[in-house]
Queue: 2 jobs
Job 1
Amino acid sequence: MNADPVEIIDSHTGGEPTRVVVSGGPDLGGGTVAEQAAVFARDHDWLRRALCLEPRGHDAMVGGMLCEPSEPDCLCGVFFFNNATLIPMCVHGVIGVAETLRHLGRSAPGCHRIETPAGVVEVEVDGDGGAGVTNVPSRVLRAGVTLDVPGWGAVTGDIVWGGNGFFLIDGQGPGVEFANLAELTRFGIAVKAAQAAAGLEVVDGVRIDHVEVFGPPGDPEKADSRNFVLCPGNAYDRSPCGTGVSAKLACLHAAGRLGVGETWRQAGILDSVFEGRIVAATEGGVLPHIRGRAWIISEARHVFDPTDPFLGGIG
Ligand code: PYC
């Protein structure tokens, strides 16, 4: 186990934290970012736990490990992880990475390519914390799936790839309001259990491990809808969840409700807003562009003492 110190920068994007390891990470042996992420998951899971769980982290923490890209013309590679697992892509995280690199003087405002395990994404860096991410192509995998959710009855939703796998539910379950957070979390956990019981944890090779519930916006002047997103590990996304917004764009397009070039303003449970736009229709889906803003909140050096009983986090 390499327990060398790591330098990190913490930011948040619309309230959702991103902890980027900017130096001192383990040697992952090169290759594609997906291959490096797999080595990290296999050999260095203690570091994911150390960075994302207490006492250094907390359940909502999302970590990002900068690494060498294998794709040409990429500014960097990055893969993301949370309190439970690695995730293929993370839009709020890419916005946090863009702001982190700008803060460090490692990137200039403009357009950059970043390699992630889900594919290469393009990020437009504004220079004031704002960034727009052209995410991986997103598509509906199954529309109108009805689950029998104990305590809630029949719940119908769509299974969608947006860089992560989502079960999207509109207008069912608890009202999408901050006051209902505990109930929304219980509902999301029950939906995941029903999905597993129905054999829908993996669909077309995609792990469906996020639940996204939609309701009306708090302020229709500012947003078209408000969402609640339950991530793997059962923390809720403090931001509107960029991969979840990508999934929503794919659904809206499939339903004929949003065309190429049109925008959708998605508020999260804290009413921070990501603006989603369909850049192009793709085979079976859409190419989504998601815009949001990150703020740097700390720079730190984490040290790891092998005698620390909680070196690998609590839980
Ligand atoms: O913004 O894509 C996102 C995201 C995924 C998980 C947490 N945030």
Job 2
Amino acid sequence: MGKVTIDPVTRVEGHLRVSTETKGGTIHQARVAGEMYRGFEQILAGRDPLDAPVITQRICGVCPVSHAIASSRCVENALELPPPLSGKLLRNLILGANFLQSHILHFYQLSALDFLNIEGILSLKTRDPQLQELKGWVVQELDSNRILPAAPFLPRLKGDYPADLSWTQNLLSHYLQALDMRRKAHSMIALLGWKVPHVASIVPGGVTCTPTYGELEAFRGHLYILRRFIESVYLPDVMATAKQFPDYTRLGTGLRRFLAFGAFPEAEGDWLPSGTVDSRSFSSLREGEIREETAYSWYVDAPEQETSLPDPEKEGAYSWIKAPRYGGKACEVGPLARLIVAYHAGQPSVKEMVDDCMNRLRLNHSALKSVFGRHLARALEAQLLARRMEVWLDQIDPETSHVAEYVPRSQGSGSGLIEAPRGALGHWITIAEGRIATYQCMVPSTWNFSPMGGRKDPGPVESALLGTPVARDSQGLEAARVVRSFDPCIACAVH
Ligand code: NFE
């Protein structure tokens, strides 16, 4: 019996602790915990409903656009304020750009370093100018025999990094290129959202920006370069990394139960469908099945889950993250869930792309439910999305209004369900006497990083860690790879 704890898990937003117990060389118990409290839901009580999208965006600097849209949608539903189609399409473009930057960030800046033989690169004696440049920003000291990786390449956990240094060098050289691509995606958000990261143009009723033809063409120019990068660098890099680490196309499987709220509305409905997939069978989404449990979370148990009152002394609790459940069951959310739900709902472009990718990798579709399945799902979604954004862009008419007229009402209640880069996101509001009476957020990382629920059932990441083989002297790299495939954002998870 052994124990490995990673605390904090680095290269993630917020504070995450992962504790594992191993038996016979594999993980047989895992607990994940969010280690901070924030209280956004309390901050919102008593405010004007129009403040909600402004405040909830501050939950996170990585996915603020999703919070702005979820928040605007719940206010729209409460106040009966449906946005025009052009407002929805402009939101799709802003959210789409946010997805692209987030997925690229996740692979290159947050995850790829778990697979790169940085020490091997540093030990190479060569005059190759590209390698010299790489070394220049990877090393802490380059004087004598003591050459160490520098931040953000620290801490380095010991592990089975590949011997193929030319592959490592190639992937490492895309680290800086990826930063440049993210800058382009941020420029796209700023063109339509007016500022980044927290946008100013998304409001209940639609989008207040009125982009010119020139601004739309500037957006198109960035999008073209991003699409080329995704098709020719990002997706091939993820596929090549999956080939280098075949074990991780089998590890980290998890619950095999997937949930998506649907996203990117078009005239005929959501481009990415909502629904659940459990044992390969697809079901439509039933909002009434969504609940948050708090048996092992440091919150006061409340029957209607409308409050988030902290209880740091609560017996048995071990996390500041709550435990969302659908029909009483934990579900994985995120790009893989979206892909699997869309696949089983029969979305033709998703089906074609997934089938083609798995054929090229010579992998069975069951390999999708793995660490690399999640990385591949993100890259495939980015490719599909970049292509679809070109279609939405063609449909924007700069001459029309993109926002409904705001008519205040003193009471109402509503929900705003959408997809954020990391998965299903829901905001719920009740309004009384013109002010916010209650506000509730259920965030993707809350689903994935939930602790046990009321039936002592583990959360999705806790399940995915089970059965992961670990080296005798492991510092936790194997667990970190599984955990990071879910792209944790604990700032969001605890909100
Ligand atoms: Ni803070 Fe987020 C996304 C939301 S959290 S990054 O994507 O909502 O899972």
